[in-house]
Amino acid sequence: MAQHLGRALSKLRAAFTAAMCALALLFALSYAGRIHPIGDSFAVFRPWIAVTFAAVLIGTALLYSARWVKLGGAAVACVLVFQAAETWFDNQIATPPNWMVVVYQKNLNFRLKDPALLVADIRSVGAPFVTLQEVTPRNKAVLKSLVDDYPFHHWCPFNAVGGTAVASKFSVIEGSRRCAEGGFTAMKVDFNGQPTWIVSLHLHWPWPYRQAAHVDQLADDLAALKGPIIIGGDFNMTEGSYTLRRIQELTFTVRASGSGGTYVLRDVVPLKIDHVLLPTCGFTARRPLFGSDHRGVVARFGNDC
To answer: Which of 134, 147, 213, 276 has a CB 3.0–4.6 Å from the CB of 299, allowing a cystine?
Structure first.
């Protein structure tokens, strides 16, 4: 009997060890986006890989008698869970009261039926800039409803789900409005005497879809924007990915930290894929869905980071 239990335990250890190694490989690949776009595809699901890896790691450790294995497994598991937790929770840090709200970022959802609540929320937040995605001919009504508050705006077509748009309380610098091949709208505004680019981005889904090629396509347009840049967008990519780092490097921007998952895949898996990039550090907070499948993101920043 003891011999049979020993064999069963040995097989169980082997299975858990194999699963642990496989998950460790997936976790490592999630940081390999610079080498191949498949790395960023794994990066999207890094929090869930991390949590599963932590659970299997603890299970593996419990199957061994050595105390150091148990303690080591528990310690690594805690680190993995802590890293994953920010996807589920809004981890906004309290910001100084003199920091201004700067942009309201929102993927409208091309199926948006009634924008009234969203329009009211944008007005109540009072951000000087708004960046929008999935702006279809029908839900362009959002821009029309906001024209008294945001008289300067620009829209560019993208694909079947709608184009990208920016809106501003500050006057636009004539001749600065730009559209790129797709998913890119930009205009330069006079932001309290500082010419500043306001950009709305909407990237394709990652590998096996064409996100990497899309960023390659937009690279020259992004790099051509000189001076301070504020970017709001549905990047279809999480923080810590090569895609997001590359866009930050091209535009000399910093991702505003804070906020949890902004899009829920299949109504189950929260993904943090909507971001705001700023010329300096800042923090974000999520807004309700308001009929979209994406939460809005409001960013603020100041000069005393």
So the answer is: 276
Torsion angles phi and psi, residue 102, rounded to 5: -115, -35
CA 177 to chain centre: 25
Bridge partners (DSSP) of residue 298 are: 104, 285
Place of tokens 């840049």: 229
Task: Specify whether the CB–CB gap between 285 and 298 falls below 8 A.
Answer: yes
List pLDDT tens digits, range 72-128.
Answer: 555 555 555 555 555 555 455 555 666 777 899 999 988 888 888 999 999 999 899
Question: Is pLDDT above 70 for 259?
Answer: no
Q: Smallest Cα–Cα separation from 76: which of 36, 1, 20?
A: 20
Helix (H) or strand (E) holding 38: helix 38-44
As a whole number of angstroms, the distance between CA 86 and CA 73 comes to: 21
Per-chain mean pLDDT for the chain: 82
Q: Locate all alpha helices (DSSP H) within 127-194, ordered by sequence.
A: 141-145
Q: Is the peptide bond before 208 cis (omega within 30 degrees of 0)?
A: yes
Beta-sheet pairing, 282-286 with 297-301? antiparallel
Q: How far apart are CA 262 and CA 144, in angstroms?
A: 25
